[in-house]
Specification:
Length: about 200
C-alpha cells in the first residue's frame, strides 16, 4: 500500500537538511530554508490529520493546519535521526497537539463572546431620543440573550482547579500527628510509671 508520505525519503530529506544547518552554523551563515519536499510532507501530514473524525467538523480547520505547520517548522531542529528514524510520527505528534491547542483557543474565544452577549446590559441599546423611546429596543440582542447557551466548560474547570487547590491546602499528612520531639521510649516509661 502506498502512503502519502514516504517515511524513508522524508528521513533522508531531514538528515540532509540537518547537515546543511550544521554546516551553516560552522560557517556563521544564516539558517537554510527547509526544502520543498519537507514542506510538502509536513503539509500532507497536517492536511490528512485534519480529515480525522475528531477534527473534520471544525470551521477553523485551516487555522489548525497552519498552526501545525508552524509548530513543525519551529521544532524541526529537535528531531534527532540518531534517536528515531520515524519523522512521520514525530511531526504527526507535533501537529496533533497544535490542533488541540487551536481548539482550546477557539473554545475560549467562543465562551468569551457568549458571556459578553449574555451579560451585556440591554440599556446600552435602547433608543434615548424622542417620546417613543420605551417602545424601541434592540430585539436582536434581546433574542441572543434569551436564546444563547454558553458552554460553562471554563467555569467548571476554574471551579475544579479551585477545589483541588483547596483540598491540597487542607491536606493533612501523617507527620502532623506524630510528635517528632519525643523519643518513643519515653512514652513507654511514662506508661510503666502510670501502671505503678
Amino acid at each position: 500500500m502506498a502512503h502519502y508520505v514516504d517515511n524513508k525519503k522524508f528521513l533522508e530529506a531531514i538528515v540532509e537538511y540537518r547537515s546543511k544547518v550544521t554546516e551553516a552554523k560552522l560557517k556563521d551563515k544564516p539558517k537554510p530554508i527547509v526544502s520543498n519536499y519537507i514542506g510538502e510532507c509536513i503539509l500532507k501530514i497536517a492536511t490528512h490529520l485534519s480529515y480525522k473524525p475528531n477534527f473534520i467538523n471544525y470551521s477553523y480547520r485551516e487555522e489548525m493546519i497552519s498552526d501545525g505547520i508552524e509548530n513543525c517548522l519551529q521544532y524541526i531542529d529537535n528531531f534527532d535521526p540518531a534517536k528515531s528514524n520515524n519523522p512521520f510520527a514525530y511531526f504527526t505528534q507535533i501537529i496533533y497537539y497544535a490542533f488541540l491547542r487551536r481548539i482550546q483557543k477557539e473554545k475560549k474565544q467562543t465562551y468569551i463572546k457568549g458571556k459578553m452577549i449574555q451579560e451585556l446590559p440591554m440599556e446600552l441599546f435602547d433608543v434615548q431620543d424622542g417620546e417613543d423611546s420605551n417602545l424601541f429596543h434592540n430585539t436582536y440582542m434581546e433574542h441572543m440573550q434569551s436564546n444563547h447557551q454558553v458552554d460553562d466548560f471554563f467555569e467548571r474547570k476554574r471551579e475544579q482547579r479551585a477545589a483541588a487547590k483547596k483540598a491540597k491546602s487542607n491536606h493533612v499528612s501523617l507527620e502532623d500527628f506524630i510528635d517528632t520531639d519525643d523519643d518513643p521510649s519515653d512514652d513507654m516509661e511514662n506508661l510503666d510509671d502510670s501502671e505503678n
